[in-house]
Amino acid sequence: MKPIERAVEAAGGQQALAEKLGVKYQAVQKWIRGVVPAERVLAIESVTGVSRHELRPDIYPQDSRGASELRA
After folding, report:
1. pTM exceeds cut of 0.70
2. Domain range 3-71, CATH architecture
3. Domain ranges of the chain
4. Are the C-beta atoms of 24 and 65 separated by less than 8 Å?
C-alpha cells in the first residue's frame, strides 16, 4: 500500500482527507495516481500521522526533522 493510500485510510477515506485539508476530492485522487505535492505533505502528516519521509522521501530524507525538533 502506498503511503498516500495509508493516509487516506487513516483520515477515513478520500473525501474525509480532502475535507480535512480543504481541497477537492479530485485532488486526493490525483495524488493517489501520482505524487503528493510538496506543499501538502506536512498537512497530510499532521492530520493522518503518515510521516513526511514516507509521503515524499525525495524531499524529506529519513533523518529530516521538524523545526520544533531542531530548536530543542
Report:
1. yes
2. Orthogonal Bundle (1.10)
3. 3-71
4. no
